[in-house]
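Here is the promised in-class demo. Please do not try to memorize the tokens; focus on the logic of going from shape to residues.
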């Protein structure tokens, strides 16, 4: 498991089921095939999405502070 430095677990969508359901998967991208835009969805215990980050480019990711701000909404 890769260390994130965050006080909670971060899950990866290895099957791409979630990225497809949340609309961030693209069959064809400018620089790749079968790719998703970098995205973060903060989901509470009831399954309600409380925070979202979706990158505009493949290289755009939320920084640690932004992840923590989104997580505070839970």
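The designed amino acids, position by position:
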């Amino acid at each position: 498991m890769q260390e994130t430095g965050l006080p909670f677990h971060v899950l990866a969508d290895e099957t791409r089921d979630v990225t497809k359901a949340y609309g961030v998967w693209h069959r064809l991208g400018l620089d790749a095939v079968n790719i998703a835009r970098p995205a973060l969805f903060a989901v509470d215990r009831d399954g309600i999405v409380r925070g979202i980050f979706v990158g505009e480019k493949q290289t755009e990711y939320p920084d640690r502070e932004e992840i923590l701000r989104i997580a505070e909404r839970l």
